[in-house]
Amino acid sequence: MSRVSRMVLPLAAAGLLLAGCASPGDPEVAVVEITGTGYSPVTLVVAPGTEVRWTNADSRAHTVTSGGALLPDQQPVPDGAAEFDSGRLVEGETFAQVFEVAGDHYYWCEYHGEREQMVGTIRVEQP
Ligand SMILES: [Cu+2]
């Protein structure tokens, strides 16, 4: 083993350890609460790369589902962005999604979207 590689390997190992810990490189986290009257806030504005976490604080089950028939004239997510679906979230459960693509990401609750207008928007834009 050469003198150079002996120096580089410990540095690489240290880098791997740091990657597993909290650091300034970790994504920003923003929170949406799911309540009995809908998503709070209804529209959340975040920077690209932000992780959004929805938590169901209601006794009823809900979903966080992009697109949907409530928005026939709107593009559910911007070009190049992934659609998302939490599935059934019971009280206390959390769903997380990282948003990278700028634009409006519309979503709704599959159980209460149509009847109760339970809809929300994640707006991704540069700060
Ligand atoms: Cu719901």
Task: Give structural notes.
The protein is α/β, with parallel strands linked by helices and 127 residues long. The protein has a single domain, classed as Immunoglobulin-like (Sandwich), CATH 2.60.40.420. Helices cover 17% and strands 32% of the residues. The chain is built from two helices and eight strands, in the order αβββββββαβ. The chain has helices at residues 3-19, 113-116; strands at 29-35, 38-40, 43-46, 50-56, 65-66, 94-99, 103-108, 119-124. It has a four-stranded mixed beta sheet, with no helix packed on it. The protein is globular. Residues 1-21 have low confidence and may be disordered. Residues 36-125 form the Blue (type 1) copper domain. Keywords: Copper, Metal-binding, Signal. Pfam families: Copper-bind (PF00127).
Work out the helix count.
2
Task: List SSEs in N-to-C order.
Answer: HEEEEEEEHE
Overall form: globular
Helical amount: 10-25%
Tell me the CATH superfamily: Cupredoxins -  blue copper proteins
**Structural class by secondary-structure content:** alpha/beta
Total strands: the figure is 8
Terminal Cα span: 48 Å
Quaternary state of this entry equals single chain
As a percent range, the share of strand residues is 25-35%
The gyration radius over C-alpha positions equals: 19 Å
CATH class: Mainly Beta
Give a list of the ligands: copper (II) ion
Mean pLDDT: 84
CATH topology: Immunoglobulin-like
Largest sheet: 4 strands, mixed
Main-sheet strand order equals 2-1-4-6
Signal peptide: 1-24
Keywords: Copper, Metal-binding, Signal
Protein name: Plastocyanin/azurin family copper-binding protein
Pfam families: Copper-bind
